[in-house]
Every structure is written in structure tokens, then in C-alpha cells.
Amino acid sequence: TRQKDEILSLQAQVKELKAQLAQRQSKDSLVFMSTGVSAWEKAARRELAEKNKSLRENEQLRSAVTEQATFIEHMQTIFAKKPRLSISLNTWQEYKLAAQASLREAAIHAIADRQFARQQNAFIVAGLFERADVLFQAGPRTLPDGSNVLEFIYHLTLPAPYDVVGHACWQVYNGERPPTMADGAKRALEILDKRTVYMKYTEQLGSTTETSHVNVIHKQYIEPDRHVIVWRAVLEDALMPTMATGNVQNEWGWIVISPVPEDLAQCRLTLLGQVPQKLCGPDMICPYGGDKLEENITAFVDKLSIGESVVRPPPPPKDVEGDAGVQFMNRGKRLELALQLSINDAVVAYRAKQAAQS
């Protein structure tokens, strides 16, 4: 039919545009991967590219809106109806998802890709870029835009190749080996593809009637010299109207797993997580931070290094009734434990495979 032909034509155009974009990104990556160029020079090139991109953004947005409006008008003509699409053109930039499947999927990818683009600058600001020494830290930070966040940093070396550890970490974030949940909590996953997942987590705030929503996009990026996992909270979801009256938690972050240049049998794992400080005040900084955080992670790495099995740890303490801050900290602890167990099992399997081949 004519409508089917129109849709197929549009799909072909989208496919061609994606191919052109991939080709352009491939060319750009070759510039950044040039031999003889230092990591800091590559970083400077990326930062300059981001600056130039922002300067062009307003003009690009104006033309993009026009193109989107034309596309929507065309689709409305095809289907002879008027879906409520006006709110979804650029609201992904405010971390909002539309109900319509195609716009929803596009927004999820756009949100994740923007978070990925911010990784390098965030690591530079946090003192993590090209850092070799171990660092465990939890505390407040004022970002360059003046906003205040509570920041969590794990930066350590692990005794396994980066792709082994990267896959183990992604199994936690893609739902294959998820963290445990608090009593009564619920979790649902929207799996867009093998590297993109939208996780919806709800939990009652103690004995109150208020519901805590933690809806987070997870996406994995595999590059020639590293694995990157990003996460970013969604603040509004048209398919979840209860978010409008619930407690919506905001958070974002990155995990980067890269090889140790002098020993490819080892890798460096860097986790940087941030939340608006209004969620967790100064008194909430260190339930699992400071010396205790370093002690726990160091013990885990030491056991991996000498080949000992990691004892399955007990669940974290129960949440304090009605305290969103404590719920956040306990979810973080559950995530930490899930990552430890997944990495441990991956390292054990990797060593067994190596031993069998020797």
C-alpha cells in the first residue's frame, strides 16, 4: 500500500543517515587514536570538539526542530490522526520520556549518548583522567556550572583483562546479574538492545504511602581500548504518571574499564557517580565511605589478586522508614556488592580458562 511504501522509504532514509553518522564518527575516532599523540592531547582535542559543538548547537537545534516538525506532519498525514507529540521534540534534554515507542527509544539513546560525551570532562574535573594510583572517595563537590553534588569515586586496578571485567560489570547493569532489592521493591526492564537498558525501580518510603522512583538508563559503549558504561536517571516518564506525585531520585555516572598499558593481564576500573547534594546532605556522606569504603574494596581486590574466593556478603542494613537518603545509600551498597560478585566470578572463570589452555 501507499502508506507502507511511505514508511519503508522513511526507514530507509533513517538507515542511510545512521550509516553516514557512523562513518563520520569512525573518521573522528581515527583522529583521536592517532599514534604518537599523548592522552592529554587527545583529551584537549575532544574538549575543543565539545566546545565547538556547543557553539553550533543553537543553530542546529533550530534546523532540527524544523526537520522534526516536517517529519511529524508527514507521519500524521500517513496515519490520518494527531498523536500528542509536541512535548517530545526536545524534552529528552530535560530527561523526560514520551509514551510513543519510536520517540521514547530515540530519547533514551540521546540521553545516554549525551551522558557518554560528558564522561571525559567529568573525569578531568574529578582528578581521574590518566590517574594511575588507587583512589576511593565519597564527598561533596561543586561542579564547574556551580551546582553541588555528592560524589562517589572508585578507582582501582584489577587482576584481569579489561574486556573480562567490562563484561562482568555490564551483566550487573543490563539485568543479567542485578543487585538485590529492598523488601517490597519492584524492578522492571525495558531492553532496547544488547547494550541499552532502561531500568524502572520503585520502592515505598518506609511505612508511608509515598513511592520512591529510580528510573535509570544504562548503556554500554565498547571501544578499541576501553569499555564504558553510563547511567542517567529519567525524571519524567509519560508511561508512569505516578512519578508526578512520588519521590523521583536523580543520579548519573560512568564506569570506565581500560587496560593497564604495562600489563594487559590487568585493568583499571574507574567508577564516578554523582547525585544532587540535596538528596544526601553532609551527614549522609560516609555510611559506606571514607576509610571503611577503602578497607572493603581493598580487601576485595587483595582476595582477587591471590586467587581467594570472595565470601558472599550479607545484605546491607534495612532502610530507615521514610528516609530517601538512606534508601539511596543502601541501593549504592547493593550495587557495589553485585559488582564485586560479578567481577569475582568473571576473574575465576578467566583464570580457569587460562589454566586449561596452559
Q: Characterize the biggest β-sheet.
A: 9 strands, mixed
Topology-level CATH name of the largest domain: Alpha-D-Glucose-1,6-Bisphosphate, Chain A, domain 4
Summing up helix and strand content along with how strands pair, one would put the structural category as alpha+beta
Alpha-carbon distance between the termini? 61 Å
Which CATH class of the largest domain applies here?
Alpha Beta
By CATH, the architecture of the largest domain is named 2-Layer Sandwich
The low-pLDDT segments are: 73-88, 280-290
What is the helix fraction of residues, given as a range? 40-55%
Question: Could you tell me the strand content as a percent range?
Answer: 15-25%
Q: How much is the average pLDDT?
A: 77
Write down the secondary-structure element order. Answer: HHEHHEEHEEEEEEEEHH
Shape: globular
Q: How large is the radius of gyration?
A: 22 Å
Question: What is the tally of helical segments?
Answer: 7
Q: What do we call the CATH homologous superfamily of the largest domain?
A: START domain
Number of strand elements = 11
The total tally of domains equals 2
Keywords: Coiled coil
Coiled coil: 7-61
